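Let's practice the habit of predicting before peeking. Look at the sequence and jot down your guess about where helices and strands might fall. Then scroll down.
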Amino acid sequence: MRKIFTRFYLVLLLLCSLAHAQGLIYYNAFSNGESTWRNFDDQLSNVRIENGKYYLTHKQHISSVVAQAVPVDFSRNFAIQTTMSHVAGGTNFPAGLTFFGLDALNTYYFCITATGSFQVGKFDHGQTSALINWTTSPAILQGNAPNKLRIEKLQDRNKFYINGVQVAELAPLQPFGNHFGPVVMEQQTAAFDYIKLAYLAPANQAATNVPPVSAQIVQTVYHTDFNADDNNQWVLPPTDSLTTTLTDGYFKMVRLAKSGYNLSVTGANLKVDMHRDYLIETQAVHYSGAQNYGYGLSFACDEQRVYHFWIGASGYYYIGSANKNGFNTILTWTPSDVINKGDLARNKLGILHKNGQLNFYINDQLVTSHPDIEFTGYRFGVSVSANQNIGFNYLTFGYLDKPSATRVVATQNDVTPPEIFITSPETTRGLKVVQSSDVLHVAGIAKDPSGIFSVVVNGIQAVVDKNGSFTVDVPMAIGENPLLVVATDNNMNKGQQRFSVTRNNVAASTVAAVTQTAAQGKFYALLIGVQDYRDQSIPSLEGPVGDATTLSQALTNNYTFNNETITLLKNPTRAQFFAALDEIAAKVKPEDNLLIFYAGHGYYDESHLQGYWYPADAIRTRRDTWISNADLIDYITAIKSKHTLLISDACFSGSIFKTRAIEMAPKDVQELYKLPSRKAMTSGAMKEVPDKSVFMQYLIKRLNENTDKFLPSEQLFASFKAAVINNSPNGQVPQFGEIREAGDEGGDFIFIKKD
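Done guessing? Here is the structure:
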């Protein structure tokens, strides 16, 4: 993508008065006939003000910026802010704010894409350089949704926010000038609601002006100060791993076990409507124990699944769910300076559901947002993991809106379960279906006068619309698969529908087709183990070389790899690593498949938002001796294989993903093999992993025990993810997903069993 500004440039000197509002430098809401921003149309760009929005269209494969000069005092702290929406054109193209600009060839920019990525960069004498590489963020609302961009210029750093969530931070930037405005790159149209610049209040003043999130509550449904127990029975029977008490207005949870977690939630009789706008809030104190494990709020709990919003006393927060198979990460452990750290620290946690979004607050500061989740549970409470002593001094649930006049109000007198009608698959003949696919698409309608709260099929939540129509994809094993559909209405009554599906073995025609296609290409592997480091400040490891060797044996013994197509590197230098990649790149053809494996030390640099691997000659204090994710992605993108799979057993290896996790794809083997893929499988997300690798233990075990002719990497990963979570000493959560911007088109790497 070319990121070059056009020579067109608007400069209007504005004389702004601080009389408009305290600290306000400049504000323009793009009102028709009142804005100093003008309309124009030429061969490169079209700009118009319409209905209170500033529409900027770029027509060619370069970029346009419209900026105005604003008299701002750079010795003070200030912020620039806008709300923008992608309107039309390429969804992968950037749009956003330019700031600290002098002219078209000298300016900074902060841009996002409609597909969920952001970048910070600059044009210096017309040369483009990235200050922060393209990074995906769950804070970005994708598609045509509006996104609020904010840049804070501080004395000691610059902070970048999307929808109230800080996504990046940089050291102080040297301004080119005082021009600010919108920018659109490539062929697309974006709409901007306003441009605002304001001086920031001193930190101590700003903190006192933050309104409590609970001020938005219209109706309090439940509140306890934990001075006494109630019908929800917060105090649990003591066990070897947990003791709970109500003491001095605190609900105290003392855990002794070093793994696992405990929670205490509301009783079944307290039924809240989690389809409305609501807030769940508590305040917790960390008395003692492990500081790098979670504690906090649990919500949407039922017998199938529990969702967690946790913080750690070391200054991180986490969002995810847990069921009988293990944890599913929504947002991996993320640092935040709004968390009060250490023992005896108190932190307020809030989950606010509003306008189809889940917003997560710490100490009344929004830290992240996530699109609404279709969950079945309605119970909520508090939880503690690992060996920690935590106290909670209140718990509140309140609605932020009034009940809709058109909504059926829940009543305790309704005991009639909802009706369920299955529309796909066809089940009229004995409620039994035969198919060969490994995924079953289930669709139907659930009906009840009070409305449908949720539909679950074999423990998997379905997508349900307002009319009760639902769809869900369910994995199928070879043989008979009983299915249970459970629909819950808004009064928490449950209805059930049962049927079964028999999955046959993969058809002989499919086996022949995939085998014939795969036979046209080779299976290459580059296996790297680094455990002996020359820099004495980097501790040596014991397992990586042995793990790489064991993986090589599993591939050659069981699958269509051979010794000639496998390159095994033991303790390579940085130069040897890239030389091996160059050699493989010269061999691999478009019909070939490539597996890259790395075991060794990893590092994540928060200041550069970049992950790295350490080769054997890495110097801990010199980044230029490391191997960055960006370097690796460039190689993976350039190697024109049919499929490339990266497996990384290193700390902080999850930073390479376009997405944190990927759902089971409802495609057959033929389709998966036909479409190109660039996937990655890592032993953890953004935390340290142990030297003795539980991840490798179960990866090799599943590869050796597999009996299927075709094993997609996604299916391989799903077969051992839970085992890693349940058996790792630090609760590590392995990850699987697409490698960002590397050419993935939805296919998968298929391990083909030798005959």
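How did you do? Residues 544-558 form the longest helix (15 residues).
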